[in-house]
Predict the 3D structure of the following.
Amino acid sequence: MTINGNNISSPILYIALLGERDSIKFTNIPQESIQHPMLGYIGCLPQSMAQFIYGIEYYQLSKYYGLISGYRLIMVYPDITAEAIKSLLDLPKQPHVILLCTEEERIIETYTNLLKDYMNEDFVCLTSDEADNVCKFPCTTLTRLSDIWKWFYDYANKNYEIDKSRLPFSVPCLDKSVYDTGDVFSPTRTNTQTINSILGNWDYSLPLTKDEILKRRLESSEAALNNTTGFERQNLLIEQITKIRLIENIAADLTKDIKFQEEHYRAPLILAAPYTSIEMRKLPEKDLLPEEEKMAQNLEKIMGYHQTHNYTVAYDVTNLPEELYPAMKYVLNNFLIPRSTFFDFVAQLHCSIRFSPYLRLPIMGKNINSELSFVGIKHIERLATSPNKNKNIRKVMEKIGKKMTDEMLSPEAVEMLQEYSSQIVAMTDLPIEWMMIDGVPLGFTHEVCRLPETPVTSLLAQYMEAKFRPYVIPEDILQKTLVVFGNEDPEFMMAQSPVRELAKTLGFQIKTCLDKASFFEAVKETGPELLIIDTHGGVDETTHNSFIMMGNDIVTGDDVVNSGIGPQLVFLSACNTFTTYNTINTIANAFFQIGANAVTTSYMPLHVLPATVLYIRLLRNLNKAAHKNIHLNWLSFISHLMRTSYIHAPIGKKENLNLKKETLDTLSELAVQSMFFDKRREVYEKLNDKKFTKNLNCNYEYVIPHYLMYSTLGRADLIFFQSSLDDIMPEFPQ
């Protein structure tokens, strides 16, 4: 959309000028440079001048056309070169908002010298009060967020011809219950920013002094400490999520020909479930001197925190010397608070892409470790090879899932999730798909993708990847698919025979790679957009890093990062590539570092035949989805694949080779019903009703739930099928 030759729809460029680079000391604690309070302001600001001028109309168009929005944020360190600065700012005329995220005069001086030749009327700089006296940028500099609205207003009137018939600079008249001016509980700020961004209500903050804000925060903390088992704070988030859903309803009512299913029209829920892993709090024993062992034990106690239902800190201080109590306060101020702040900042970025609601759950830690240990490195193989392995694996999953629900969700949150027809993007290292919602796993009722918390900076990288490198699945995706066989074990080769036959009809390529070098050579030569790897996998008990095997060669995450390959979609049909306990670096994360948009990976040991059948079904179904409007995005596709693998599981069993036609028809009907959110709970309950399954002559009690064995990492909800876009997307107006 252009006005007076200027692109009003182009995103505003936000430039975060950070402090010096610092190394990550803990995998789950963000660097100091990306914890600055100025970064939290971005959610209060418009994404483009079109959004600033036309407000809720921008939101309505985004919903109707299914657009990917979000902030164009560039994070800059003082060691950036002059050439890099020039390339960043070599853009058409548009506003540039600088967020000054440092108070160090020396660093500000460096930035001033780098930027001074580019400063003009298009630039405005937001700084903290502390930086005001040393800021020398030759552009408008503001220390109060409320002052920027006049700058935007003047810029809009000067540079654009505004269509007054479209109600510019107006906020819709809605019921007062929809408006939101915020609460001092920090996660609510993200939803407050989203609600007001939707409405185009830019200057909404309450005129409170710093002392008044501090007083409110103290009162909120005191109330939470007096009722640690309550859910008052979480229910504030639920109320906000309800408001966002209500605004979505209003937007839908104004649009009569929406072609999306409700589950895909709705903005995905951004759900954060931080986890204080055992690796986060333990110092490596091999690096300790004898006199440091006691210190390490005390540090583990201090770092072993989790949060109560009401988001207060629960410490295990048993046998902790009184002189170490100040260390607990240090951990709170320097680890827990920055960690939570960073979660909320990154969540705001992810929310901005589709105007999503945000639900941050209490931090888990020691309170779930005993349950998770059963799927940890030391015990998972024993679990997978036990006489009743199928039944035991399911019991462990359900036990962990129930524990997560009991520790993290209020009754109101459980009720909301039961009715919440949208995809879910979970920021966590926990197996969130296993969470039991009134007896049904979240991964069955919902389409869930996951953004790993470890390493913590990957949460930010995932946003940058989705925003700046979006991927659309082409109709010829199978011609751009490579399946790699990593061994010639008889069991694998027998299961893979149908894959070779299928390649002849579908056109994907197959390579057998029996060493590391041939694997990377095959991928480079083929250049696949979808890479399926069928091989052995595991976890190194010494380094706690997961890997895959090519013949007798171990392929580590570092090998992948240094390889130069770059598939957009990865499916790892290999054991234990993303275990959820006692693992630091995973092979799955490595594929993200080289540019993958989504990686499907395994929590558990896989069984060769069902694992192979699963990706055979993936290839067959992909052949259909690539040409017809069946699934809007990769998350919908992969979730349906996993869910129906469970529904169809009895068909492949030897004892069920002669299933009646009526049974096969019933299973097919259940698979179709599971396409729709409002039918999935009913489908699951039928499959777990012994009377119902007995009539089918199918026993699901011993079926491994494959939809819970895997996890899809990355913003798979933003990877669209070209076939679906062509069918449902109307032409965007100028």
